[in-house]
Amino acid sequence: MNPHDLGVVRYSHRHAAAWFSLAIAKKFLVDYYVAMPMSYLRIERSIFIKPKTFHLTVLMLKLWNKERLNLAAEVLKSISSKVMDALDNRPLFIRLKGLDCMKGSLARARVVYAPVEEIGSENRLSRACQVIIDAFVEAGLVLEKDARHELKLHATLMKARHRKRMGKSVQFDSFDARGIFKQFGSEEWGEYLIREAHLSQRHKFDQNGYYYCCASIPFPENMQVD
Asked: How many Å separate Cα 92 from the centre of its chain?
């Protein structure tokens, strides 16, 4: 999978979300997932995010028909130059380090994620995300509850609601993440270039196993020379 894209993904078959996709944290999502006996920590593998779909969510969208999906694609493409301006037409790198827990405690975690830090601390990433958010809100493609959410970019690694047993989804609302944090809580996952913004469809995948891309806009990959 090409690393480090920003995309938009449906959170049901009738919804979508804006995000960056990241092929990162191999040590955690691949080596740990494959090599570590999950029974030792009493954690099912289904809780882990699939490495090929790793991403940073920017915004959830409400797209219940083809017309709204087409509109979302048009909106994303129409703001390409504004996003480039927000990024000062320069490449954008992020750093992922450590782990954090969203909702619950370490003993009863619901979501474990890697915090996101923009390298350079210029807030260019936040400005670019706000351009995207404002455009979709203005187009009426965002649920009111999602429009009120404060942007908190994060790379989700584990989710309790993904847990499955015997091939079926089960309703367990938490898992014990204390062993994970003891081993990986201060891990440095690396630095990554954000290459694209995607409008991607959830539950539908491309040939590489990533969410199907309905539309995308590029981010700067090279320094502009006057």
From this structure: 16
Distance between CA atoms of residues 160 and 109, nearest Å: 7
Residues of the chain with pLDDT under 50: 1-15, 23-26, 35, 37-40, 166, 169
Token pair of 5, please? 């894209």
Helix axes 66-78, 124-138, angle to 10 degrees: 140
Backbone dihedral angles phi then psi of residue 186, each to the nearest 5 degrees? -115, 15
Contact present, 25 and 189 (Cβ < 8 Å):
yes
Whether the CB-CB separation of 63 and 199 falls below 8 Å is answered with no
Residue 105: how many CB atoms within 10 A of its CB? 12
φ/ψ (deg, to 5) at 109:
-80, 150
Beta bridge partners of 127: none
Answer whether 86's CB lies under 8 Å from 127's CB: yes
pLDDT in tens, 136-162: 999 999 888 877 888 888 888 888 887
State the pLDDT at residue 200.
Answer: 82
Query: Number of helices and strands (H, E) in the chain?
Result: 8, 12
Per-residue pLDDT at 88: 96
The whole-number pLDDT of residue 127 equals 95
For the four alpha carbons of 204, 209, 211 and 216, in that order, the dihedral sign comes to negative
